[in-house]
């Protein structure tokens, strides 16, 4: 990442064959979020940012905020650390939705998924 490259991963979409998810509080419910982005960021030793495009004042606005300078997944606390990072993402998404509530949508029943936090 020293050359300025970016890897973009949707932090609220669980792939069909996701090996692991984590349940976090999101909009008053427990929501499954993928663990993969956090594992990848830890392996790459890179920062993680939240990126969103929302409608404001009749135009699109890009929202970009740092979530972690570096992702650390210590032994013995790996699952807890992933949940903490995923909660940061959920909080950033909540802040975006407070500004523009109709700019987040899914084409599937997001909360009706089986609780993937138990999968491994």
Helices and strands, with pairings:
Layout: E1 21-26, E2 29-34, H1 36-44, E3 48-56, E4 59-68, H2 78-99
Antiparallel strand pairs: 1-2, 3-4
Protein traits:
single chain, 120 residues, alpha+beta, two-stranded antiparallel ribbon, 4 strands, 26% helix, globular
Please characterize this protein's 3D structure.
The chain contains 2 helices and 4 strands; from the N terminus they run E-E-H-E-E-H. The strands form 2 sheets. A two-stranded antiparallel sheet has the order 1-2. The protein starts with 20 loop residues before the first strand and ends in a 21-residue tail after the last helix.
| Proportion of residues in extended strands | 25-35%
Helix and strand sequence = EEHEEH
Task: Tell me which oligomeric state these chains represent.
Answer: single chain
Average pLDDT figure:
84
Q: What is the overall silhouette?
A: globular
Number of helices: 2
Strand arrangement, major sheet: 1-2
